[in-house]
Specification:
The two termini are 22 Å apart. The protein contains six helices and seven strands. The structure holds S-adenosylmethionine. The site of S-adenosylmethionine has 17 residues, from helix 6.
Length: 173
């Protein structure tokens, strides 16, 4: 790379001057994700990929996002507060025409490498750090995506998994 090219901090300043509004096309729903750091990481990925975040409207999530989110000021991404039971909310989104993608390890799941960019309004479900996603939601999803792994760990960190899937669905990777 040439030494005369713009530095990363110059590119950041030039490129990241606006926040995106709610495009209502791609929503990531870590409805069972508990840890602040994971929610904070997902907020940043949503901002970067032009997606929205949906989380339960409870004191726990409000507090966790307040602490975990490190994007301050006018660049806050769009957050949808879920004000009813989580499974009922997912069912209502489906009835309203959203395509539901579960991110989980499951028999017959689509490998990440074959996941196509979202062409319709898409809701992405992420599971709890220990318990994963409720099995009935994985079963009912329009598509389940699994990220191939070759190491010894049983699963990825949920914010990493969500970010990888989001970038594919946003057509950015
Ligand atoms: C740490 S994992 C939960 C693991 C849990 N102990 C289990 O065995 O079900 C948390 C969430 O991250 C996502 N996840 C982690 N690794 C994944 C992978 N390789 N493929 C798809 N989703 C993954 C899923 O949404 C999962 O529910």
């Amino acid at each position: 790379m040439s030494a005369t090219k713009a530095r990363p901090q110059d590119l950041r300043r030039a490129r990241r001057i606006r926040q995106h509004g709610c495009w209502d096309h791609l929503v990531v729903a870590p409805l069972w994700v508990a840890y602040r750091a994971n929610l904070g990481t997902l907020v940043r990925t949503c901002d970067a990929a032009g997606a929205c975040l949906a989380v339960p409207d409870t004191p726990h999530y409000q507090e966790a996002l307040g602490v975990g989110e490190t994007l301050r000021g006018p660049r806050r991404p769009c957050i949808h507060w879920v004000r009813r039971g989580r499974e009922r909310w997912v069912a209502a989104q489906r009835s309203a025409g959203w395509r539901v993608v579960a991110v989980e390890l499951a028999e017959g799941a689509t490998p990440l490498t074959r996941l196509a960019p979202a062409r319709e309004r898409t809701l992405v479900l992420l599971g709890h750090e220990r318990e994963g996603l409720p099995a009935d939601l994985v079963e009912a999803a329009d598509e389940c995506v699994e990220i191939p792994m070759v190491g010894r760990g049983a699963s990825l960190n949920v914010a990493v998994a969500g970010s990888l899937v989001l970038y594919r669905l946003a057509g950015l990777s």
